[in-house]
Specification:
Bound molecules: S-adenosylmethionine
Strand order of the largest sheet: 1-2-10-11-9-8-5-6-7
Largest sheet: 9 strands, mixed
Distance between the termini: 53 Å
Oligomer: single chain
Number of domains: 1
Number of strands: 11
Length: 272
């Protein structure tokens, strides 16, 4: 019943979403810069209802509410842009926003049939390390809650885990010079170990300065008050132990006590 309510809420929200409204809601600086990261605390977030002391997104887990907010903040103006979504799954608010704001949406997803190749303006088979389009095709590439899975061992078993270096190189290849990237992922939740551990240094290191500029990291819901703390729970830990090789038990124990938050990353391909 809860899932059905969630699903209806999600669809309804998607029908009503407006890029214009999103542009107004998210214009200007919606973050506070702390230690070189753009921090969006719940109490400061534009989706926070001060009167009711709750998030105005009516469905989804605490992190999905941040996903919706961040997607609205970043993908609200794709006018005349050719935009690629990686790992679109079954539902894409980003696709709706891109199309409604005048952009052309194209998607690649490894769970699509290999007989359904991706074409410009449509979704089809493809994955982050093998994007079936020529060099310099897109003005923008984005991925919602997929980045953390590209290199993971456990869920990626259906397809071989990819090297992050290859995926980022592939995104760089299909972007036009000056093209932009938006990626988001949960931190201290699941996926590749750098996302479970929240290793921002490693994540930043994927975007080298000979190829990329203007890298920004946003941290959503790390400062969650007055909303509830959302912490890693027992069910996640078996996967953590399969994924994590490069960190000590002590570091893992420390992470278990941290709140789960959402990372949003934007970066630009250098012009030459
Ligand atoms: C948690 S789902 C998110 C789906 C959708 N973007 C959303 O926000 O609901 C993760 C998605 O990433 C896709 N995925 C996993 N590994 C991938 C890869 N290497 N390249 C592209 N997509 C991948 C999965 O097939 C899945 O659709």
């Amino acid at each position: 019943m809860r899932n059905l309510k969630n699903s209806i809420g999600k669809r309804l929200y998607s029908i009503l979403v407006s890029p214009k409204k999103a542009q107004q809601e998210w214009c200007g600086e919606y973050w506070q810069t702390i230690d070189d990261v753009r921090d969006i605390s719940c109490s400061y977030c534009r989706k926070f209802d001060k009167e009711k002391q709750q998030c105005r997104i009516p469905f989804g887990s605490p992190i999905r509410k941040c996903v919706i907010s961040s997607v609205e903040a970043h993908l609200n103006n794709a006018k005349n842009k050719s935009v690629l979504e990686i790992g679109f799954g079954r539902f894409s608010l980003g696709k709706t926003l891109v199309k409604r704001s005048g952009g052309i949406w194209t998607g690649v997803e490894p769970h699509q049939s290999k007989d359904k190749p991706s074409k410009i303006g449509k979704g089809g088979y493809g994955h982050a390390a093998d994007i079936p389009f020529p060099d310099k095709t897109f003005d923008m590439v984005f991925g919602v809650q997929t980045f953390e899975h590209w290199g993971q061992k456990v869920e990626g078993a259906a397809m071989r885990p990819s090297e992050y270096r290859d995926c980022i190189e592939e995104i760089w290849r299909v972007l036009k010079p000056g093209g932009t990237v938006y990626l988001d992922a949960p931190i201290h939740f699941h996926g590749h170990e750098m996302f479970i551990m929240g290793d921002l240094q490693k994540i930043r290191g994927l975007f080298t300065s000979d190829r990329w500029k203007d890298l920004n990291l946003e941290r959503w819901r790390y400062h969650y008050e007055p909303l509830q703390r959302y912490v890693p729970y027992e069910k996640l830990f078996a996967e953590w132990h399969e994924e994590i090789d490069s960190y000590t038990e002590e570091e893992i124990e420390r992470i278990k006590k941290e709140p789960i938050w959402m990372l949003a990353l934007t970066v630009t391909k250098i012009d030459n």
